[in-house]
Design brief:
Strand content of chain A: under 5%
Number of helices of chain A: 3
Helix content of chain A: over 70%
Oligomer: homotetramer
Structural class of chain A: mainly alpha
CATH class of chain A: Mainly Alpha
CATH superfamily of chain A: Metal-sensitive repressor, helix protomer
Largest interface: A-B, 46 and 46 residues
CATH topology of chain A: Methane Monooxygenase Hydroxylase, Chain G, domain 1
Number of strands of chain A: 0
Largest sheet of chain A: none
Order of helices and strands of chain A: HHH
Chain lengths: ~90, ~90, ~90, ~90
């Protein structure tokens, strides 16, 4: 189980479907010999959109699972796990 | 026209199709209530894969269009353009 | 008050003093007309070191202040604050 | 020799001296037990300032050394070197 309510899920799925479309769009741009810098601009847009998705999941996870675990005196393990995924997120 | 040869294109399209599949995979994980941290790990993986795509396009663009423009004494404009897209890429 | 114990502080101060020295080192490299790419390599090293400092403070803060606040039923505000600083950290 | 003119150098040295002061400021904040989130905000500020320094050096290097090398038919090696430092810069 995760900490995403139906509203979160709907929002995230919408964002991810849009990102999926953008990734397909880049494939088309490459096939059609579009200008590299325009392709890179699209890559940047997707990276930004994915970061937003990551931050939203992080937010829900912390407000949900992490808070719950801390209240049940099981906070340290889940915080270590959070920090590990965070370190990779900032790469 | 861009600086991607057929070999570059094939490699990039393969990577992007894989990324597209990973984005669909995350949607499935959300629908199936998978654990947030596992979803985040997947988000990180896609971000890394997209960065690699960006770096490869950047590399081909610099070895191709940028080099060509500099030889034709039109380097400064294309370098300014490159730096602008780079600044966003490092966000 | 923050969540840093004496041991954390000592470690962080050591790291920051080293970073301060590296920043001075870059100034010297610029004054001595060192090669740009070597300067950039040093800039990257400092950015990495600063990220590590940030991650360590983040870790202590979450294990300390955030955990404490959640136990005192004041978690949501401090988590929002954490997410805000995190969003900037990932820029 | 690098591609920095006296004006670039003066600007970069000014920025680096400011960054050095900010790094010292964080050490003071830690010694005075300032709030973690305020320290992190300062860490973010320095990271942003260092990124700007890196982008400026990158810009001068590309407009200078890289352009020159390409005109002298020695472009590919210097572009490979540029891409390598860039890949680390985007970490």
């Amino acid at each position: 189980m995760n900490s995403l309510c139906d509203l979160d899920k709907k929002d995230l799925l919408l964002r991810l479907r849009r990102i999926e479309g953008q990734v397909r769009g880049i494939q088309r741009m490459i096939e059609e010999d579009k200008y590299c810098v325009d392709i890179l601009t699209q890559v940047n847009a997707i990276r930004g959109a994915l970061k937003m998705v990551g931050l939203k999941i992080l937010d829900r996870h912390t407000h949900g699972c992490v808070k719950e675990a801390i209240k049940n005196e099981e906070g340290d393990k889940i915080i270590d796990e959070l920090m590990e995924v965070l370190a990779k997120f900032t790469d």
